[in-house]
UniProtKB/TrEMBL annotation:
<dbReference type="GO" id="GO:0005737">
    <property type="term" value="C:cytoplasm"/>
</dbReference>
<dbReference type="GO" id="GO:0006535">
    <property type="term" value="P:cysteine biosynthetic process from serine"/>
</dbReference>
<feature type="modified residue" description="N6-(pyridoxal phosphate)lysine">
    <location>
        <position position="207"/>
    </location>
</feature>
<dbReference type="InterPro" id="IPR015424">
    <property type="entry name" value="PyrdxlP-dep_Trfase"/>
</dbReference>
<keyword id="KW-0808">Transferase</keyword>
<dbReference type="GO" id="GO:0003961">
    <property type="term" value="F:O-acetylhomoserine aminocarboxypropyltransferase activity"/>
</dbReference>
<dbReference type="InterPro" id="IPR015421">
    <property type="entry name" value="PyrdxlP-dep_Trfase_major"/>
</dbReference>
<dbReference type="GO" id="GO:0030170">
    <property type="term" value="F:pyridoxal phosphate binding"/>
</dbReference>
<comment type="similarity">
    <text>Belongs to the trans-sulfuration enzymes family.</text>
</comment>
<keyword id="KW-0663">Pyridoxal phosphate</keyword>
<dbReference type="InterPro" id="IPR006235">
    <property type="entry name" value="OAc-hSer/O-AcSer_sulfhydrylase"/>
</dbReference>
<dbReference type="GO" id="GO:0019346">
    <property type="term" value="P:transsulfuration"/>
</dbReference>
<dbReference type="GO" id="GO:0071269">
    <property type="term" value="P:L-homocysteine biosynthetic process"/>
</dbReference>
<dbReference type="InterPro" id="IPR015422">
    <property type="entry name" value="PyrdxlP-dep_Trfase_small"/>
</dbReference>
<protein>
    <submittedName>
        <fullName>O-acetylhomoserine sulfhydrylase</fullName>
        <ecNumber>2.5.1.49</ecNumber>
    </submittedName>
</protein>
<dbReference type="Pfam" id="PF01053">
    <property type="entry name" value="Cys_Met_Meta_PP"/>
</dbReference>
<dbReference type="InterPro" id="IPR000277">
    <property type="entry name" value="Cys/Met-Metab_PyrdxlP-dep_enz"/>
</dbReference>
Length: 425
């Protein structure tokens, strides 16, 4: 597969060489362990002198195809999958920071990632501080010598905002800190974070990549040349000093994409939130049509957003694809053809109205998910973000009147009719 092929071609072909049976569908390798040709080969694989399969907690052929394909579509160097997007975010973060370090994170991120960073990582001795994605002067002020990662979403969920990625990257580069961008909502088809200097991209594959709400998965992808930032950078001792858990290996000595390699050798090996071959196969099917679907999600959502904007009972519509949206200039700068995905949020008249709309829709299902081919609706304050306290909700930009839609692939007119009756009923 030539590197210079375009994204739709890569999504269908990259990373798969026919096996002996020449199956056109990527085969599912349903196995736990792999046989070595001899003990010397086994030893070389364990020592990372030869890359190859050992045990399916670390690598497996079906997952490998998906990883290569995701790295190609994203324009990255190397990718490692995990059993969910949450596991991928966790691995990316703990690959940067350890006990005593801190992480800076955007105030507008997925609720689960917010609690992971603020509460779970805290129990591991990793502290964190929020910055305002809409006011990046708050970012640099919080950086100190213990800051090891800056985490944000390119298009955030559910209080939709678009990151000024180049500005974040510029600040991070000045301090030699790794940037991690969650690109789940935008997908690589709308936003190529590596083109704007981001170091690491994470995705929940459970959303648009899957597209049918049928499998969980996550991925961590590193940019080309990330080794240069990590090697000899005193901020990242885990890569630059001998690893006692891996017979004294120094990752920086390897001529491999060390960010992802260490996710395999440290995090998948010892924690084991590995993507299964079955789910990798399901996600491969989704990835093959992602480019086509994300266009339709975006055009449907634009029609729905225009309808909501025109409705007198809707106080505010947040969809970056609307030209009067505050994020439209950033959408234009960072996103392909000003497409803005299927995610819309809006403010109902009051909390009771917001809840009633969710309960009255007939096509939109109340589901705590996004990116499905079917349209979904949710009330974030009482569901996906209910773990956040009042203050955290406020800084995340969510109010009790917020309703979030994930626009699917139905006919836009049917979606508009359904919302109309739910709003007015
Ligand atoms: C869903 C989601 C996650 C978590 O992914 P899972 O696969 O559900 O663990 C992370 N980030 C974003 C933006 C998401 O939408």
């Amino acid at each position: 597969m030539a590197e210079n092929h375009l994204q739709n071609t890569l999504a269908l072909h990259a990373g798969y060489e026919f096996d002996t049976q020449r199956t056109i569908s990527v085969p599912i390798y349903q196995n736990t362990a792999f046989s070595f040709e001899n003990l010397e080969q086994a030893g070389n694989r364990f020592a990372l002198k030869e890359l190859g399969n050992i045990y399916a907690r670390l690598t497996s052929p079906t997952v490998d195809v998906l990883q290569r394909r995701l790295a190609a579509v994203e324009g990255g160097e190397f990718a490692v999958c995990a059993s969910s997007g949450s596991a991928a975010s966790f691995y990316a973060l703990v690959n940067c920071a350890q006990n005593g370090d801190n992480i800076l994170f955007s105030n507008k991120i997925y609720g689960g990632t917010n609690t992971l960073i603020q509460h779970t990582l805290k129990r591991f001795g990793i502290s964190s501080k929020e910055f305002d994605i809409d006011d990046l002067s708050t970012l640099e002020k919080s950086i100190n010598e213990k800051t090891k990662a800056i985490f944000f979403e390119s298009l955030s969920n559910p209080q939709i905002s678009i990151a000024d990625t180049e500005k974040i990257v510029q600040i991070a580069k000045k301090h030699g800190i790794i940037t991690i961008c969650d690109n789940t909502v935008a997908t690589a088809f709308l936003h190529k974070a590596f083109d704007f200097g981001v170091d690491v991209v994470v995705h929940s594959l459970s959303k648009y990549v899957n597209g049918q709400g049928s499998a969980l998965g996550g991925v961590v992808i590193e940019r080309k040349g990330l080794n240069e930032l990590i090697k000899n950078n005193p901020k990242y001792p885990a890569f630059n000093t001998p690893d006692a858990s891996y017979h004294g290996l120094v990752y920086a000595d390897l001529n491999l994409p060390i960010f992802c390699i260490r996710i395999i050798t440290e995090w998948l090996r010892n924690i084991g939130a590995t993507l299964s071959a079955q789910n990798a196969w399901i996600l491969i099917q989704g990835l093959e049509t992602l480019g086509l679907r994300i266009k339709k999600h975006s055009s449907n959502a634009l029609e729905v957003a225009k309808f909501l904007e025109s409705h007198p009972d809707i106080k505010e519509v947040n969809y970056p694809g609307l030209q009067n949206n505050a994020y439209y200039p950033l959408l234009k700068k960072y996103f392909v053809s000003t497409q803005a995905s299927g995610l819309i949020s809006f403010e109902a008249k009051n909390e009771a109205h917001a809840r009633a709309i969710c309960n009255r829709t007939k096509i939109f299902e109340i589901v705590a998910n996004l990116g499905d081919s079917k349209s979904l609706i949710i009330h974030p304050a009482s569901t996906t973000h209910s773990q956040l306290n009042e203050n955290e909700l406020k800084t995340a930009g969510i109010s009790p009147t917020t309703v979030r839609l994930s626009i699917g692939l139905e006919d836009a007119k049917d979606l508009i009719d359904d919302l109309k009756q739910a709003i007015e009923n």
